[in-house]
Structure formats: C-alpha cells, structure tokens
Amino acid sequence: MFLSRALTVALGPLVGAITPAVRDVCVTARGDVWVDSGAGMVKSESLRLDPATTRFVAVALMELAGRTVDDAHPIGDGAIGHRVRVNVVLPPASPSGVELSLRFHPEAATSLESFVDRHGRSIRDTVSEWVRRGDSILIAGATGAGKTTLARLALELVDHSRRIVIAEDVPELAPQHPHVVSLSTVPPTADGAGAVSLRDLVRSSMRMRPDWLVVGEVRGPEILDMTVALTSGHAGICTVHARTLQDIPARLTALGLMAGVAPNAMAELCAGAFTRMVMCTRAEAGTVATTGSLWLKDSRLVINRD
C-alpha cells in the first residue's frame, strides 16, 4: 500500500504495522495495537504505544484529515484521501484513554470478480445488468465486508453520460467515472454553527440533477430522504450495516423510526426504492455476495433471495 510522506509521518510508529493486506488497525487506551489483515483482529506482539504517543498520532492523523479533536471536542471522524478512514475518541468520552481506529480501503485494482455468490460464481454480470437497467441497489453487510468497495465498483459501470452525486459522512467512495460530484458532512464549529448533516446533503443533491444518487452509508433519518428520492425516479446506491440477511428489514425499520416514519410506511418506501439488494459477507478468498430483492408481505418488509 502506498503511503504518502505526510501520512507516513503522521502514523509515526504505527507505520510498521501497515502492509498491503491490512484492513484495520486499532490502538486501545492501554496502548495495545490490533491489526486485521483479512482473517480477524490479531494483537501485535512487537508494537505498543504509550498514552502520549497514541494521542500525538491520533491528533496528527485527524489534522491530516482536516478535522480537529481536543478535550472540548473529543470525538473525531475523518478520511485521508480515499484510502484511509480515521476515528478518534479522546477522554473524557473514553475515560481510560485515547482510542484510535484506522480503516484501510483496498487499492482500486480490486474487481467485481472478488465478489461471488454462494455457488462461487462472480456477480459481475448480474451487477452490470442492474446498473445498465438503472436499478437502485441496497448493499448491506457487517463492518469490513466490502460494502464500500462493491458500491464503488458498481458506480464505475455507470454510463459515462450519466451524472453521479455522492453524499457521505466521510469521503470514501472514489469511483473512476468522468462525472462525479462528491459531498461530505461538516461538523459544527466551536460555537455550534455551520454543521452540514447527511440529510442536508441528500436534500441538496436532489437539486443537482443527479442521474445516480448515492449515499455512502445510511445511519439515521436520511433514509427517509433517500428512499423518497429513489421512489421519485432516480437511480441510486446506498449501503447499510447489517450482520445477516435477516437483519436487514429490522435495520431499515429502525432507521425509519429515527426519521419518525412508521414501520409499515418505511417498508413500503424501501420496497419501492430499492429494486435490488446485495448482502456482503467476508470470506478468505474475497466476499460472498448474496443477491436478492425487497418485497412487501402483510405490510412488512421481507427478503427474497435470487
């Protein structure tokens, strides 16, 4: 994995833990360094950070991401380019000490061939056909399952005459496409002004003539604005956290409740908004991608596998 000079300096002693296979690096308040290279978290036996070094590295990485963390604003989330995501929690939000989490996205060389169905067949042709038809796609999965990568690869299949507008909490999606507009949320200033939420971005993107509307990850009430947009004729892609295929309806219902939408109304919106669905599950050789669709049954959302 290529590390810029600025990122190498900011990482400090953690640079020794970074390899091309690394997906996640987490430093605990105790100074333990845990590394995930695709087979789960493993504690480093050779690397440990003292509290002052952990805080120095955390603050430096957040500054490189263009964000600020301090005692008055102890939680920070940011991205360094489109390859590294940083999350920092300082005391007093983390009473035991600084907690630092890094997510490394794979290089752009990853292809749809890495995503296979439960029979081991690539889903490339399936996703290509969905995109060609303008089907809206919901991509679900647990942390690190490949949701963002699949979303990026699908967007790279969009016809170059189409305009893609992406709204994200932290910029991570960077599809190779000639007409992409990327929007990201803005935290409030010290006096509490100037915040731009994901919901603000979704509403604004509707006025930007999108052919494809993309939300990097729905986590709250923006689910309402996204589904309303998709049911009004736009094509789109969004990702959502869910541990299993069966968890998806409950997850979408819970997000709808955050927007004040009743479960049966949310079910109707989601069934109308998302033509197709993919559930990503991490595997040693890549990602198992279970495809299907969302349907209404007795006013409840159900999953139909392909």
Describe this structure as you would to a colleague.
The strands form two sheets. Strands 7, 8, 9, 10, 11, 12, 13, 14 and 15 form a nine-stranded mixed beta sheet that branches. Strands 3-2-1-6-5-4 form a six-stranded antiparallel beta sheet, with helices on one face. It has two domains: 5-104, Beta-Lactamase; 112-305, 3-Layer(aba) Sandwich (Rossmann fold). It has helices spanning 5-11, 51-64, 124-133, 147-155, 198-205, 222-231, 247-258, 263-273; strands spanning 24-27, 32-36, 41-48, 75-80, 84-89, 99-104, 115-116, 137-141, 164-168, 180-184, 212-215, 235-241, 276-283, 286-297, 300-305. By secondary structure, the chain is an alpha/beta fold. The mean pLDDT is 91. It contains eight helices and 15 strands. Strand 13 and strand 14 form a beta hairpin. Helix content is 26%, strand content 29%.
Q: What kind of sheet is the major sheet?
A: 9 strands, mixed
Alpha-carbon distance between the two ends: 36 Å
Overall helicity? 25-40%
Give the amount of beta strand, in percent. Answer: 25-35%
Shape: globular
Briefly note the structural class of the backbone.
alpha/beta
- Low-pLDDT ranges: none
Going by CATH, the homologous superfamily of the largest domain would be P-loop containing nucleotide triphosphate hydrolases
Series of H and E elements: HEEEHEEEEHEHEEHEHEHHEEE
Mean pLDDT: 91
**Cα radius of gyration in angstroms:** 20 Å
What's the total number of strands?
A: 15
The CATH topology of the largest domain is: Rossmann fold
**CATH class label of the largest domain:** Alpha Beta
